[in-house]
Amino acid sequence: xxxxxxxxxxxxxxxxxxxxxxxxxxxxxxxxxxxxxxxxxxxxxxxxxxxxxxxxxxxxxxxxxxxxxxxxxxxxxxxxxxxxxxxxxxxxxxxxxxxxxxxxxxxxxxxxxxxxxxxxxxxxxxxxxxxxxxxxxxxxxxxxxxxxxxxxxxxxxxxxxxxxxxxxxxxxxxxxxxxxxxxxxxxxxxxxxxxxxxxxxxxxxxxxxxxxxxxxxxxxxxxxxxxxxxxxxxxxxxxxxxxxxxxxxxxxxxxxxxxxxxxxxxxxxxxxxxxxxxxxxxxxxxxxxxxxxxxxxxxxxxxxxxxxxxxxxxxxxxxxxxxxxxxxxxxxxxxxxxxxxxxxxxxxxxxxxxxxxxxxxxxxxxxxxxxxxxxxxxxxxxxxxxxxxxxxxxxxxxxxxxxxxxxx
Length: 408
Prior knowledge:
By secondary structure, this protein is mainly α. Helix content is 78%, strand content 0%.
């Protein structure tokens, strides 16, 4: 049986979870690209496109808390396998359902539900298995793998038929499940080589649901996450349509939508190592590092989105949106890492709550963007300036209310 001894236990956990997040992120950007040729075929209105794009987030919203609840009872292994398998099936069958908007929306909701189970499970593993001095870069590699997945999908999909996009990336998830069973069967590893898929209970004081809802430092994270995702969902859902319909891009231009994700991956890893380096410097506290990275990750993108929305040259627009997406990656070493600082025993649950709240932008961005663009006669400025304002407010709230000491 295959054994992976060349990597540390932490590295194996990060690599395994990052591979799942790669597929997760790749699958969710297929539709924003494929919807351009699909709209030409099925003649969907702007509002219909908005609901199709937002359907994913509607399903994603419902499974965050379930993921954090099930991981303690069913084990991370079972949750990861089931979620990857379900979202891969939903991706693979999408072309068969495309002629019916109702069936397509339901399929997209199932995809979102399955993908929503993944990250709470991964946060649970990271909080229990990764030393504090390695967490920033672990989270950075995790989120960077998602950006790589989005990059690969963005490069490949414009050059395939829209049906083939769903078939190929759906099959990739099936391959991941197969590799899991080949590499990590039941009882394959014992002792020090065991990857802790079923985590032991951590002794902590009794907590109530009100502790998760009424905590100011947790709400600072929730708000920052909401603000980050508002901009991210607009870019993920609408950038291909914006470049094609508003800036006159073609299939080659759609491949360039990979550039923001490439920059996001690189900057995320750099910020993770930078944050860990600052933490080893006695002049920097954990709180100051988290605040610095979060402010870079919210205020930086806000400024470049404001510039992006007034540029009508395709190359310049891609340049500014890439910088915006790149700076956003520093949030991985900011408020996203802050979960395990203030709630190490409940990071899966706090992230599930945070990601549930932060999925609301995904539900709203489709119809709200469609309404704003339609009402303004095809102009997008209000969409991006609104995202700029939300980011700035989120940064202010996080900076003034965040903590880095354990509260749960």
